[in-house]
Design goal:
Blueprint (H helix, E strand, L loop, with lengths): L1 H19 L9 E10 L5 E4 L5 H15 L4 E2 L7 E5 L11 E5 L4 E5 L2 H17 L4 E9 L5 E7 L7 H13 L4 E5 L15 H4 L18 H13 L3 E8 L4 H6 L4 E5 L2 E6 L4 H17 L4 E5 L14 H10 L4 H17 L4 E5 L12 E5 L5 H9 L3 E4 L2 H4 L22 H5 L10 H6 E8 L7 H8 L2 H10 L7 H18 L28
Parallel strand pairs: 2-3, 2-4, 4-6, 8-9, 8-17, 9-10, 10-13, 13-14, 14-15, 15-16, 16-17
Antiparallel strand pairs: 1-7, 5-6, 5-7, 11-12
Helix pairs in contact: 2-3, 4-6, 8-10
Catalytic activity: Hydrolysis of terminal non-reducing N-acetyl-D-hexosamine residues in N-acetyl-beta-D-hexosaminides
Enzyme class: hydrolase
GO molecular function: beta-N-acetylhexosaminidase activity
Amino acid sequence: MRFLYLSILLFVYSAALAQDQAAIIPMPANFAGGTGFFTLNNRVTIGFNNNQLKTAACYFQNELLSQKGITIQQTNNSSATIMLVLKPVKKNADSYAYQVSIKSNRITVSAYSPRGIFYGLISVLQLALTGKNNQIPVAEINDAPAYAWRGLMLDESRHFFGKEKVKSILNWMAFYKLNTFHWHLTDEPAWRLEIKKYPNLALIGGIGDYLNADLPAQFYTQADIKEIVAYAAERYIKVIPEIDMPGHATAANKAYPEYSGGGAAGHPEFTFNPGLEKTYRYLTDILKETNVLFPAQLIHLGGDEVSYGNEKWNSNPDILKLREREKLKDNAAVEHYFMKRMADSLYQLNAKAIFWDEMADANLPKDKTIIYWWRQEKSEQLRTALSKGYQVVLCPRLPLYFDFVQDSTHQCGRKWNKLYNPVGQVYNFNPASFANNANEKQLILGIQANIWTETVDNNARLDYLLFPRIAALAEAAWTPQSRKDFRAFNASLSQHLALYNKAGLYYYDPSKPWLHPEIPVKRKKPLNYKD
């Protein structure tokens, strides 16, 4: 009886939601439901007042055709039944903002930028895909994101997923209005990016992955990269590569050992050699090729966990000479010297540098540097970064590392002192709570979820860890805190799960954990972030 009562309450709540909100994720800043429906059919046309909107219109047409089997035609007629309107730019206009007016006979999407139009069409698309009988409910939407940086990181050094899977992830990112894809392409297990001046980085460094060191080389050619970057750009997603340094360099050093600074037990050949001038020329060459491939003019240079494998720095004659010449008191000072030089190389390419939070201590130029705060137990690193005026992206392991498990019963991913990252914790993450004043609030660009792949060796497991947390991430990054409602999110999510089913995703359903059991994964060693 109690279960029946709760089910009735949920049904009533969901019905009320359908009228007041509909199943848009992330929840818009302002949504007013009306009476009636706009019906999609093959007589619907789409038009736009500026050719810059053609890409967004084509995207919407293709999605309706592939998802619903509905063909809509473009028209130059301003009386199109779906009209896209690019408004004249005003001072301080939000390029991410959009308005959607849905009447029973017409839909109008307006914005100050093509990106805003795209986001408006995404909201219309979600209503179309979650509605019944090809009907879109009458409504007025006035929306803009709370944060400009809404990101997802994928580690492909530890497991290579390939071009089609990356495109699939980009599609879902676009569907949830995420706009930054951080691509972790280099690390200890493998190097996944073709560099023409140093071909062995991919041909030798690309051999193996985290679980199998003998796999044939897998990497992205420069043609692949250009294709994926263009694919992302059509969805208003910028792609940021990570070239990890000076640590996590084992794969690169396997290919070109003359630039190795050695390692330590468990982390062989872990670092580049900061004591050799040729190391800086070599890495600068790599950054030059990389920067051409990624037009966002943002490159992540790593800078994390160097102490795991810099033991040989204490005895390397080149590094000892560097320390003496530059009066560097310890290995941390050597690391900061190295990172300043590599950051300078990047700045000279008119690109900004991104670092993990260890580099908040390095005194890099604040106007050219972004810090990722990832260690939730190191709140002082966040405070240091903000006090120095760095722009910051929040991606703390709890709750934004998606390789952490989603449920207490799950055994195949990470936990932190028995803590894990369920969808509710992701949803309730509040970036504003980390700012102590208005200035710090402005410095927080947004949030990002990171998925490391030590425990992800196939596409199904990747889906299992991404979905539905990617939807919760989107709402945490976009929706104003005052508008967030976890019950409403779950009501919307229940309709999005049907879309996951249709797409063939192996997702985790928090309301039905038995539906898709956790996928086992091989392990090389016990997982412990504190080792």
